[in-house]
């Protein structure tokens, strides 16, 4: 069983996978605006051409999602050392 929850009152998203008595918990924490500049080199700096990753993600999103027209993306770090980015949801 996998549970995904997002609480709008706290700045984190948690994913819990139940397995036995001690379920592991993966917690995603939004990167504050003042730390966005260091996000890419910190998490992807060992990848050659890491500086091109963000525009490539935007380009692929534009090609794959008919309704995508740019916007703000949120950056997240994970408690297991990982990181990801996700488009900010529309307020429609």
UniProtKB/TrEMBL annotation:
Matching Pfam families: Antirestrict
Low complexity biased stretches: 1-19
Gene3D superfamilies hit by this protein: Antirestriction protein
UniProt region (Disordered), positions on chain: 1-28
Cross-referenced InterPro entries: Antirestrict, Antirestriction_sf
Family recorded in the similarity comment: Belongs to the antirestriction protein family.
Record-given protein name: Antirestriction protein
Species for this entry: Shigella sonnei
Source species taxonomy: Bacteria, Pseudomonadati, Pseudomonadota, Gammaproteobacteria, Enterobacterales
